[in-house]
């Protein structure tokens, strides 16, 4: 399923806004799969029977951190999901949280502050998607007014993302005048994962986006164009973040192209 993708005026912290909406009168079961992309996010969801990851029901309003393990969300019937995809450094800068504590998990924003609890109520009572998006954007703008972004980490993450994860992390660390250990600790606290893992995630995300766009003839083309030393290296990296091989993913994408569910990549 393809989300509606929008941009935000708060583009220092918000990569994009996307909206997934399905009006399902048949009350069928849905499965939505998400993979690592190097970003965190603020999400609001409305469903008839809740959204679950395994046996855990998700909050209607949540902040999620870096995703390393593949995620499968399940729900039944109609649903709406509004996600503000945040740049890697945004969780720490906007909310003052240790980003590594949110890796592969999420925070119920109704418990973050009295304001965020009120925001959840306002979003839920809003009469349109446009109004809901506006409430969330205003909330993030208020958080940004007192944000304290580390420009050095912001620059590092942007550089790694722009190079699709192919630039040597060691070379970046040497420009910081920090020891390798200090750099890794600071990066993980503000981004959620160590710099080498972040770089690996970005390279994976670049490769899977290339596959989704169909801009290749052979899978080996994807491997070499994304800086993998060989195809076996690419396959190992791909399985680490999806639990399946690139060829299996390719086959599933074809079979799910006409479905409302499936793999979600933004």
TrEMBL record:
Keywords: DNA-binding, Transcription, Transcription regulation. SUPFAM superfamilies: Homeodomain-like. One of its GO terms (molecular function) is sequence-specific DNA binding. Pfam families: DUF6597 (PF20240), HTH_18 (PF12833). The keyword Transcription applies. Residues 154-252 form the HTH araC/xylS-type domain. It comes from the Bacteria. This is AraC-type DNA-binding protein. It comes from Dyadobacter psychrophilus.
